[in-house]
Every structure is written in C-alpha cells, then in structure tokens.
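wait is this the right file?? whatever heres the structure
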C-alpha cells in the first residue's frame, strides 16, 4: 500500500453513492478527505440532502458549494449561480491550498455540474484531478472536465471512445459494500420497492398515491418518497397510510430516504423495483439481477437516463415507462409485465471499488 501520511484529497460531483464508498475506503488507508457538495438537494428546499447527511455521518469534512448549471435552465436566479459558483469554488480551493499546501494531492470528481468549477479551479492552482463517468453516455459536465483531468475512469466499455484514449481507465462503477454483501439474500415474492432516488420523485409519488389501494391488494410496498419540503410527499404518504384499512396499512412501508444498508436490503429482497434510471441504481440492479420498471428523467443531460434504462431493457431485466406516459394504469401494467421478465446476465465489472481506489493511489500517492 502507498504511504499516505495523512495527505488530503478533495471529493466532489453529483453521484455521491459510489464516491462515498471510495472516500470511505481511502479514509481507512489514512487519506484525509474533504467533500465539496450540495447541502440541499433542490432549489428552495430546506431539508438537508442525503449527500450531506451521509457524508457528515461518515466523519468526512463537508463544504457547501452553491454552483448553478447551464443545462435546461432559464431561471435568471439559477443562471447567476454559475459565475458565482466558479468564484466560490475558486475561493474554497484557494483556502484549502493555503491550508494544506503540499499535502493537498488532488481532486476526485464523480460527475455532475458541481465538479466543473472545482476541477477548473483546482487546475488553475496546479492540482491534478481524476474524473469518474458513471453513465453509458457522457454529459457536458464530464466532457468539459475531461480536458482538465489527468485520468478518466469509466463504468461502461461503450464510453471509451468518448474521451482521450491516453486518459481513460475502465474501472466499472464502484459498488457499495452493502450492495455486494446483499447479493445472496432471498427476495420476497410480493414485495415492490418504489424509489425516485435519494431526493425522491414527485411525479412518481403522485402516481403511486393514486394507485396505492390496487397495489396494496397485490403487493407489499416499500416506498421511498424523499424528504423534500417543497412537495411534502413524505407527510402526504403518512396521511394516506393512516386512512387505509388496517390490512393494507400494514403492507405499506414509507421512508424519506434509505441508508446504504437499507437500500441494499430493499434492492436485493424485492422481487421488483420501480425507479428512475440513474447511473447508480441501473448498475446496482444489473449486479443484483433484480427486475424493474424504469422511468427515466426526460430532461437528463444527453438523455442519459433513457440510455441507462435501455441497457437493462435489452437484457430483459427492465420495462421502460416514459414519464409522459406515466399514469396509474400504465404503471400497474408495466409492473405486471416486468414480473414476467426472464433476465439475461449482464457482463459488468464487480470490483470497481477496488479498481478506483487503486487508480487514485497510483495517481496521487505513487509507491
């Protein structure tokens, strides 16, 4: 193992699940980790994000960055956050550089627009970076970051041609240990796990609320609503549950968000998952071979969620339900169709966590 000597790394980016798994492994090896991220998931939301909660609970220092994104945004109050975010990132990076000096070794970013100002600011200060691309496509943020990054780790072989070949390293997606440890668990034949990601999906929640009596007559439901104070779906779910007949009420389990252990248990024990098709959940479902109904976010960069979902659809593991066709009837029909699927095993890298840790150590702390 390389000699770390309490050297410091900065972590950032939009996909915090795999990033946190990597950061925790490096922390065990003696690295000091500084996390730059979102304290709140949504615009005007005052409920702390799952990212903030999980990172700080891991004992990792967290610095909030309120950068904005250019993609699919016309709100001037959001657009003004773009130059503000660059300035804020530069000041944060300058303070960290002055504090840690030569012990600050580099930046690791896991996709998303938040990584752009951090990586560019670091580059201006002479700090190298490693970027990880989780999706089957490439968003504008990681495409821009690739010009400044020293190495680019990718999850899928199809991404190789999208980056400079001398920078690319195929690592797969770093799976959380909790996911890997859950693969041997037996699934519950009538259990469905419904999630819109860590911050939840109001569109999916609204549809589920309308369909609940029918679903609960047939299935046991784990519903992760998110904790958004903008929509208040968690509280509404509680109100609906309290109005259900007792037998149905006992089959409906509601959570704002799930910990890594709880997520792994829900994904591995459910006979079917209804979800968005973000990079992490798609890869984890492929690893666990769990059947699913996938509702891609229609405004995701470069239609990446639909591309992710197509991988599982092609393997007869998932049914794609476009959001513009989402309603109680179409969701119920998609669930019934997904139940009949016979998945074909996907060939994916299952030791991405180990490979990513090795890449970071060899780049920033060569032996």
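ok assuming it is, sequence goes like this
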């Amino acid at each position: 193992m390389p000699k770390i000597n309490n050297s410091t790394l900065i972590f950032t980016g939009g996909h915090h699940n795999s990033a946190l798994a990597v950061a925790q492994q490096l922390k065990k090896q003696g690295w000091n980790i500084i996390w730059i991220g979102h304290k709140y998931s949504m615009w005007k939301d005052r409920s702390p994000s799952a990212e903030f909660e999980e990172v700080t609970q891991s004992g990792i220092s967290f610095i909030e960055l309120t950068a904005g994104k250019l993609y699919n945004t016309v709100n001037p109050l959001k657009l003004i956050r773009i130059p503000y975010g660059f300035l804020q990132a530069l000041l944060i990076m300058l303070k960290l550089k002055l504090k840690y000096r030569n012990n600050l070794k580099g930046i690791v970013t896991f996709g998303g627009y938040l990584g752009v100002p951090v990586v560019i600011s670091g580059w201006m200060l002479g700090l190298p970076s490693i970027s990880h691309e989780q999706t089957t496509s490439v968003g504008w943020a990681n495409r821009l970051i690739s010009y400044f990054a020293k190495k680019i780790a990718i999850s899928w072989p199809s991404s190789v041609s999208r980056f400079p070949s001398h920078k690319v390293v195929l690592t797969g997606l770093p799976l959380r240990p909790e996911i890997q440890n859950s693969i041997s668990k037996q699934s519950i034949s009538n259990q469905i796990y419904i999630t819109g990601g860590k911050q939840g999906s109001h569109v999916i929640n609204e549809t589920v609320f309308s369909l609940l009596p029918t679903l609960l007559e047939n299935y046991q439901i784990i519903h992760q609503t998110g904790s958004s104070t903008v929509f208040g779906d968690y509280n509404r779910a509680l109100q609906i549950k309290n109005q259900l007949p007792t037998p149905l009420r006992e089959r409906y389990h509601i959570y704002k968000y799930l910990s890594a252990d709880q997520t792994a248990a829900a994904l591995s024990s459910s006979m079917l998952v209804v979800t968005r098709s973000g990079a992490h959940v798609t890869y984890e479902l492929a690893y666990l071979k769990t059947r699913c109904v996938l509702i891609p976010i229609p405004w995701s960069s470069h239609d990446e969620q639909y591309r992710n979902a197509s991988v599982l659809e092609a393997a007869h593991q998932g049914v794609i339900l476009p959001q513009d066709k989402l309603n109680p009837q179409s969701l119920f029909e998609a669930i019934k169709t997904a139940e009949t699927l016979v998945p074909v095993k996907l060939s994916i890298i299952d030791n991405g966590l180990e490979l990513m840790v090795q890449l970071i150590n060899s780049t920033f702390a060569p032996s």
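The chain has two domains: 8-175+350-364, 179-339. so i think its the right one actually
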